[in-house]
Recover the amino acids of this structure.
């Protein structure tokens, strides 16, 4: 925290974002919010306020911030696919499970397609991360179908499933699929590997 404070005094946006994340993880939400406000509209900063509102259980504010994010993205872009995730989370929080699953499915399908057709490795990795994250949340909601589709689409793409952080998400998906099929022992083996 001290190093981030020192670097953040120079108003370095990425440093302030990391410090805001650190404060939020420490449940120092007021300090995190203050830093996020000072970061302005830097693209990464638009996701963090939603997370902070959710972490505080402030569903109304999370909804408001999600709506603001949704109105600021251009459809069909990597950023819009990423913005679908917090939308699904807020839908789920409101009890709109069907809507949340539809949002997750739409984002995951678009992200898988973008990842598989991307000529840029970093964009492909970002889209794979979005698709895997959507599948993990769908599993947490009790739906294993999206995970199965995402895993099948990416299974022969080691550049998208065998490198951090996607390798961890892929392992979680695989283990949870086994658990959901009643094979808890296999799930543990997967997670311990």
């Amino acid at each position: 925290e001290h190093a981030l404070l020192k670097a953040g005094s120079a108003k370095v946006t990425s440093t302030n974002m990391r410090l805001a994340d650190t404060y939020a993880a420490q449940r120092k939400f007021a300090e995190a919010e203050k830093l996020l406000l000072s970061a302005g509209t830097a693209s990464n900063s638009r996701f963090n306020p939603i997370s902070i509102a959710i972490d505080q259980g402030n569903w109304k504010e999370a909804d408001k911030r999600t709506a603001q994010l949704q109105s600021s993205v251009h459809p069909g872009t990597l950023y819009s696919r990423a913005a679908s995730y917090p939308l699904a989370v807020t839908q789920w929080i409101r009890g709109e499970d069907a809507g949340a699953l539809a949002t997750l499915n739409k984002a995951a399908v678009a992200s898988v397609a973008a990842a598989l057709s991307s000529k840029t490795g970093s964009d492909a990795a970002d889209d794979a991360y979005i698709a895997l994250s959507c599948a993990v949340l769908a599993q947490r909601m009790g739906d294993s179908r999206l995970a199965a589709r995402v895993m099948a689409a990416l299974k022969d793409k080691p550049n998208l499933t065998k490198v951090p952080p996607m390798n961890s998400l892929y392992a979680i998906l695989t283990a949870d699929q086994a658990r959901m099929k009643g094979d808890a022992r296999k799930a543990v083996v997967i997670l311990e590997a």
Residues 135 and 147 are 5 Å apart (CA to CA). The chain is about 75% helix and 0% strand.
